[in-house]
Amino acid sequence: MICNIRPWRMEDAPDLAAALNNKKILDNLRDGLPFPYTTKDAEEFISFMLQADKDQTYAYAITVDDKAIGSIGVFRKDNIHSRTAEMGYYIAEEYWGKGIGTTAVKLTCETIFQNTDILRIFAEPFAYNIASCRVLEKAGFLCEGILRQNAVKNGKVLDMKMYSLIKSPVD
């Protein structure tokens, strides 16, 4: 099972909808995604990502055998943080625990660091999401600390962890 990343295609919409139509995944993402998640929702997301500013938003389908099984994005910050970007990702539940998330994070970071001026990529998983924290750690991210009572999700006040990966200096 070989994982890769690639730009989104409109024909990915049914696979994206199937992956995201899962409360276990949505409970670990930020608010704003509908449930149930439909093919129309997926088409709107893909269209938005394809039209996004290519210097600010780097959005990819996570694929296995060229089938979209998840999403990963890196979003550049602004002002004094313009060389910093936030990463978010998810994969379909049937692919959990197979190293795909770690591979996708590594591939995405390599792509961003090689093709942009971004110096720092960070992610903020919920502190209870041990699997996502492990993905980041296995991909080389360091935990910088706990953001106490940093979010409210499903009516619960939650801690988050701050992870980052810094671009290696060029020799």
Largest sheet: 7 strands, mixed
The CATH homologous superfamily is called Gcn5-related N-acetyltransferase (GNAT)
Question: What string gives the helices and strands in order?
Answer: EHHHEEEHEHEE
Q: End-to-end span in angstroms?
A: 34 Å
Average pLDDT value? Answer: 94
Strand order of the largest sheet: 1-2-3-4-5-7-6
CATH topology grouping: Aminopeptidase
Number of helices: 5
Q: What tags apply to this protein structure?
A:
171 residues; alpha+beta; Aminopeptidase; 7-stranded mixed sheet; 5 helices; 7 strands
Q: What does this protein look like?
A:
This is GNAT family N-acetyltransferase. This protein has a 7-stranded mixed beta sheet with strand order 1-2-3-4-5-7-6, sandwiched between helices. The chain is α+β, with helices and mostly antiparallel strands and 171 residues long. The protein has one domain (3-123): Aminopeptidase (3-Layer(aba) Sandwich), CATH 3.40.630. 29% of the residues lie in helices and 33% in strands. The longest helix has 16 residues, at 100-115. α1 (13-20) packs across α3.
SSE map:
Layout: E1 3-6, H1 13-20, H2 23-26, H3 39-51, E2 57-64, E3 67-76, E4 84-91, H4 100-115, E5 120-123, H5 130-138, E6 142-153, E7 156-166
Parallel strand pairs: 4-5
Antiparallel strand pairs: 1-2, 2-3, 3-4, 5-7, 6-7
Helix pairs in contact: 1-3
Summarize the structure.
By secondary structure, this protein is α+β, with helices and mostly antiparallel strands. It has 5 helices and 7 strands; from the N terminus they run βαααβββαβαββ. The protein has a single domain (3-123), classed as Gcn5-related N-acetyltransferase (GNAT) (Aminopeptidase).
